[in-house]
Design a protein that fits this description.
2 domains, 13 strands, binds zinc ion
């Protein structure tokens, strides 16, 4: 019996030490959030927003580059259209030249044929003339009447032999000259056609060069267009990636803000709770099924040990499972378990006044709940450092344990 009492003293001293420490971080027990952690989260949000801002300006840059590329593309396109129409004109010119060349070729061919014919006629005339001269000489000047008619081409042209030979010679020479003239003329015509052909060929060659140049330019522009399209594609990919990153960043910030808002609300609720004021009413007896006060509040000399010890609450012996009531209206700032206190509850009554209940077998409320005077909040037990079923009932005022009797009656 005496040994058990000593243990109770020791246990209660441990409780005192624990509570002094845990109460200094009461806000943390209640919500897990402090002004400091909110400030930290807000700083994080700010840095993320800055990051987002720089991302957005990156996006604006990309949009500007895209706009430039698109206008460049339009320029190249219109230039290519112009080149295309130039090419069409050049091709028309080439086609025209080709048909002229074809025509000229036909003319040249005909002229060559004409020249051949003229040369053949000239040759025939020359041969005929030679034959007639030979015949005159071979006949020794004794030409028959019939010969004359035959050679001269008619009676009316019948002259004396010498006259006839002279006339015939003159005629043959004239004819020969005439044919030679024709040959010369046709030859000149051919030369003229050749030189015309030369001009046409030169014109065509120039047009073909022009066409090649235009095609080359078109190829260059097409390559340039491909490059611009490629750049545009890259920029579009970059913009899409950036937009995705921005969306993710936005979602992250929104989640953070929501969390901080919740934390702030919790902190405000906690602050409101601590702003609760105690109106000076009398406490309800917290263990109505009690049988006796097994250990009272206060200093005493331990009977066997002879040491002065402080008990910070009132131990109320009560059957296990019997109700523990909230002594007064308040907010539960802690409802949990510790190896020394067992299942315990701490209630904030405002104005710096708290009540504490230990060693419960069951808890019927939780942190953050508001309770009213006389409300069943737990059941008596012997959890934690306890020798038997009892309620350790303590009261703190402005950071110090005070006698519960000041409030119980
Ligand atoms: Zn006690």
């Amino acid at each position: 019996m005496k040994k058990s009492r000593l243990w109770k003293y020791i246990i209660c001293l441990i409780f005192l030490a624990m509570f002094t420490e845990s109460l200094s971080t009461r806000t943390v027990i209640a919500t897990g959030v402090t002004e400091e952690s909110i400030k930290k989260a807000e700083d994080e949000i700010k840095s993320q927003k800055d990051q987002l801002k720089s991302m957005k300006s990156g996006l604006t840059d990309i949009e500007a580059v895209k706009k430039q590329l698109k206008s460049k593309k339009a320029d190249i396109n219109s230039y290519m259209e112009e080149l295309d129409s130039q090419l069409t004109q050049i091709q028309g010119k080439i086609d025209d030249l080709d048909s002229q060349i074809e025509e000229k070729n036909t003319q040249i061919k005909e002229t060559r044929k004409e020249l051949e014919t003229a040369k053949a006629v000239q040759q025939e005339q020359y041969d005929a003339m030679k034959a007639r001269i030979r015949y005159i000489y071979e006949s020794g000047g004794k030409l028959t009447y019939l010969d004359l008619i035959m050679s001269a081409g008619g009676l009316d042209r019948m002259l004396n032999q010498v006259e006839y030979v002279e006339a015939l010679s003159a005629y043959d020479r004239g004819k020969l000259d005439e044919y030679a003239g024709t040959v010369e003329y046709v030859k000149l015509m051919g030369e003229k056609l050749d030189s015309e052909m030369e001009l046409l060929s030169q014109a065509k060659s120039a047009a073909v060069t022009e066409r090649a140049n235009a095609n080359e330019l078109l190829d260059t522009k097409e390559a340039e267009m491909d490059k611009v399209n490629g750049e545009l594609g890259t920029k579009e990919e970059q913009a899409a990636a950036l937009e995705k990153a921005i969306a993710a960043e936005n979602a992250e910030i929104a989640a953070l803000e929501k969390r901080v808002a919740a934390q702030k609300a919790a902190l405000t609720a906690s602050a409101n709770a601590s702003r609760r004021t105690f109106n000076g009413g009398v406490f309800a007896w917290p263990a109505p099924s009690y049988t006796r006060i097994s250990d009272d509040y206060g200093n005493r000399i331990h009977p066997t040990l002879g040491v002065k010890m402080f008990h910070n609450g009132v131990d109320i012996a009560s059957p296990s499972g019997s109700p523990i009531l909230a002594a007064y209206d308040g907010d539960v700032v802690a409802a949990g378990y510790s190896s020394t206190m067992g299942n315990y509850i701490m209630i904030d009554h405002g104005s710096g006044l708290y009540s504490i209940y230990m060693h419960a077998s069951a808890l019927y409320t939780s942190t953050g709940a508001s309770v009213s005077k006389g409300q069943k909040i737990a059941a008596v037990g012997s959890t934690g450092r306890s020798t038997g079923p009892h309620l350790h009932f303590g009261v703190r005022s402005n950071g110090n344990y005070v006698s519960p009797w000041n409030y119980l009656k």
